[in-house]
Amino acid sequence: MSKRQAIISPSLLSANFLHLEDDVRLINESEADWLHIDVMDGVFVPNISFGFPILEAIRPLIKKPLDVHLMIVEPMKFVRELAALGVDTMNVHYEVSPHLHRSIGAIKDAGMKAAVTLNPHTPVELTDVLDELDMVLLMSVNPGFGGQKFIPRTIDKVRRLRQMIDERGLSTLIEVDGGVNAKTGADLVAAGADVLVAGSYVFSHEDPKAAIHSLKELTRL
Ligand code: DX5
Ligand code: ZN
User: Mutate which of 9, 11, 37 to test ligand 1's pocket (most atoms within 8 Å of Cβ)?
Assistant: First the structure.
């Protein structure tokens, strides 16, 4: 069987906000596959990042598909705005989605890929919607901040989800976000993760493109 390279989605949250243009260009020129955008509301998570005015300003510069992670209590309010920005994948949290099946349909109807994000405590058994989803995003830290320590139990969650996806012959991607570096990234990909989000590992690295390359080299069967 051929080996699959990990899909790498650097998180803009750890970029230098005084020089966002430089950091977006750096991602454009790198081997990164996507750009991960963390939107927070100070309610669902104890932090606020950035919103539409900033995204609209940097949008024309971005050459990679946008992977938008909404850490907000009412993500479905913004489907139209995100679609208008040309977002590729819209991630909504399971914990704020009382009608997840309906939300998945609405995201797809708006022309985006639908992903659900699970907090570290949320069980991974999404048996009844798994076949509708383009991606499941597993949080490997409690969402809200960059630079936190990886929660090792995530590896087992990735394995269990990989097994469910493979047993059903689905193409749903598994993305992991939080505390990803060359070591945790290797463990995650070996467990069956397809997509790695990395914020501080990339932007705190003396050579961010080399950090992206080190993740891009990870492969799974
Ligand atoms: C955290 C965000 C992450 C964050 C990851 O709530 O969802 O995307 O940027 O940062 P690192 O890679 O530094 O853990
Ligand atoms: Zn994120």
Answer: 11
